[in-house]
């Protein structure tokens, strides 16, 4: 009695072998198709038409969104870019502020801060002028 090779009947192995054979067949078929000039011209024409249809659909969708006063994908992309620039600027400001705080802390620790005297008030506000009817 011979021992049966159960690993050959494994569903995963059968699936893997089938995928490998299918890929090889597809690759061979597509290679033959691409070698034919007429098929290449037809595929090129179809791809060009599909690109044109996609561009027309995108323009139509963008016009519809604009008519409904809704943002389009390009609007969101522009907003994302603008937000990125704002975040970068804010990070630069935060970095500069941190450096300034560190330099002020270093300067204040080495020398005492001068006290600033509050100026005395020497002038009084003008009195309101009395009209015919008296004070307002």
- The number of helices is 3
What are the segments in which pLDDT stays under 50 over at least 5 consecutive residues? none
* DSSP strand tally: 0
Strand content: under 5%
- Average pLDDT level: 86
Largest sheet: none
Radius of gyration: 39 Å
Distance between the termini: 122 Å
- Secondary-structure element sequence? HHH
What would you call the structural class? mainly alpha
The global form is: elongated
| Share of helix, binned | 55-70%
Task: Explain what the structure shows.
The chain is mainly alpha-helical. Among the domains are: 14-70; 72-104. 69% of the residues lie in helices and 0% in strands.
Task: Compose a concise summary of this entry.
Among the domains are: 14-70; 72-104. The protein has 136 residues and is mainly alpha-helical. It has helices spanning 11-35, 37-67, 73-110.
Question: What is the element layout, followed by pairings?
Answer:
Blueprint: H1 11-35, H2 37-67, H3 73-110
Labels describing this entry:
single chain, 136 residues, mainly alpha, 3 helices, 69% helix
């Amino acid at each position: 009695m011979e021992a049966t090779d159960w690993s050959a009947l494994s569903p995963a192995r059968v699936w893997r072998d089938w995928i490998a054979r299918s890929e090889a067949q597809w690759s061979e078929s597509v290679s033959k198709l691409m070698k034919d000039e007429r098929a290449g011209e037809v595929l090129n024409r179809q791809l060009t038409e599909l690109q044109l249809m996609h561009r027309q659909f995108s323009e139509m969708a963008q016009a519809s969104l604009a008519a409904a006063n809704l943002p389009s994908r390009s609007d969101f992309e522009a907003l994302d870019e603008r937000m990125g620039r704002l975040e970068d600027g804010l990070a630069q400001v935060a970095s500069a502020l941190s450096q300034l705080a560190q330099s002020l802390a270093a300067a204040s620790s080495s020398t005492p801060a001068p006290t600033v005297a509050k100026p005395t008030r020497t002038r009084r506000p003008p009195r309101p002028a009395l009209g015919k009817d008296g004070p307002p």
